[in-house]
Amino acid sequence: MSGYSHPNDPGGRAAVELPRLPQAGPLYRRALLGALPGAGRRRGDVLPGVELTVAGVTVDRAHLADYDRVCGFRLTDRMPATYPHVMGFPLALRLMTAPEFPMPLVGLVHVANRITVHRPVGAGETLDFRAYAEDLRPHDRGRQVDVVLVGSVGGEEVWRGVSTYLGRERAAGGGERRDRSERPSAPAATAHWRVTPRVGTDYARVSGDHNPIHTSRLGARLFGFPRPIAHGMWSKARCLAALESRLPDAYTVDVAFKLPVPLPSTVALSATADGAAWAFALHDARTGRPHLAGAAR
Hints:
Shape: globular
Low-confidence stretches: 1-10
Number of strands: 12
CATH architecture of the largest domain: Roll
Order of helices and strands: EEHEHHEEEEEHHHEEEE
């Protein structure tokens, strides 16, 4: 691979061109080995000064259909808003498993995600992706960082995703704080879904995100969960699948991931329209505990 200064990058990041998308499996294995006692080292306070790029990524239509089924989307030739995240995820994963990334991948918590769809993207289009990290900032439980993934077609940006991750640290302090105010009661549900343990393994298969907290009871327990939890991006995709016939061709959808969805469980979707915008939320159907809050506009 080659590195050079990106002339249009105000952050001065060096663009690193990869010949193809990385394989997620070896990256996860590297991250897990790095998490073993005695294998780690103190991470720095500076983000990697690179922007990873890969060109000519095409869609495997069988994979797209499998993804649609797992997340509840209709089978069409148009990519769901969340699908480019899956396509380019190995590039972001390569960035987050680099030795110079300031927080170890294992244990990172995905706390928020924003996707902007500039126009519909067809399954027959070829995308170029770039990924970089920005805005490393303190949080009362550690540090947060944004990982940005951009998809382009023919030099035109058609899709952008920003994933916010929290790295929990013992000596945390300052920065954004958790909202510890009393939770409002859950809004009226428009749909109920039974989320089975298979959701964890099925979404891991179609997304390439094989974090063991989603697929293994032992892996979940190692990170403080009594049983596996659903991927946050599955929850977001499932909500968008319920709204897909009501969303415009171009929009931005923000979600904040609240409490994890344990597997198995039953969740309740609530969605309300305000003109062309939608507010939606996912709660535990029995207790009302919030899992996700989002808005599409």
